[in-house]
Amino acid sequence: MPAANPAEVRTAIARRTPAPVYLLLGDDDAELSRLASDITAVVEDELRAFNVDRLYAGDKGVSAASIVESAKLLPMMSDWRVVVVVRAERLLKPKRRGKAAEDAADAEDAGADAEPPSDLDALTDYLQDPSPSTTLVLVAADIDRTRRAGKAILKHATIVECWGLKTEKNPRFVDLRAAARIAEQLVKRAAAESGQQIEPAASRLVAERAGVDIVRLRGDIERLMLYAAGKPRITLADAQEVVSAETAQDDWAVTNAIQNRKPAEALRQLALALEAGAVPYMILGQLGWFVRDKLADPRRIPAAVDALFRTDLDLKSSGGDPRVLLERLVVELCR
Fold this sequence. Notes:
Oligomer: single chain
Number of strands: 7
Radius of gyration: 23 Å
Number of helices: 17
CATH superfamily of the largest domain: P-loop containing nucleotide triphosphate hydrolases
Strand order of the largest sheet: 2-3-4-1-5
Order of helices and strands: HEHHEHEHHHEHEHEHHEHHHHHH
Strand content: 5-15%
Number of domains: 3
Helix content: 55-70%
CATH topology of the largest domain: Rossmann fold
Structural class: alpha/beta
CATH architecture of the largest domain: 3-Layer(aba) Sandwich
CATH class of the largest domain: Alpha Beta
């Protein structure tokens, strides 16, 4: 699986040596969108209308076969053609229900070779012999790595992961300090790009509120820039006006309620935290810290550790609604 970071991809585009297939993977929608747009720069400005196709997976008429058909077209008056497929997870990791889910599970148990023929086979075949004059860009939040198409992408495409303030989709350990530093740099950069200065305390508040949620961070930055538009200096008071309602929530209210064995209060605080945008994996990390460092009764520790590991596995394997999984864990830790 060849891999690259966004800077390396942009360097390749500047040198006009793009890879034949890119998979842009992650939850940082803003960076994914910018990078996909930058890749199209391999085509001359005046010729992009003829040589750049932007397709939306899931839209009527957009299928793996139609994507391959577009990728096989020869460029017009240019050396390159670019096909960008947005929301590609709708093709590469579709939601399955009922019999489709059962068939997918049976195929996974039997191995990829047991998969019945599907529309995705056209894409799988193309990946093994892509057009030399086309760059295919698949932009996805995730893919099914157990299917033939997913395995072919991981083998033949250049993978660029953009997880914002995290290093991967579901990291086992999140360095919150490192994430906060990166987030603060992004806040300062946004202020500088708008020609403004920002007080250190203001950038720190916005960064700390985001945790490792890049979507929340970019949303808060956008609101802050709009709120403070035209001001030469963004103050802490400006940042507090933008994020005050969300930061009113006590970050440790859930663990405090668990420590006091108050399941109803713990569930209420969990709901408030999730509604305020807290990341489920961050909450799990807090609960893990509580079990390791604050759980005083040794008789409760074995069951608590078992519940933590089970919830961790379920979150990583999409074994249920994250809210339901965390509610179950909170109730178990209160016992």
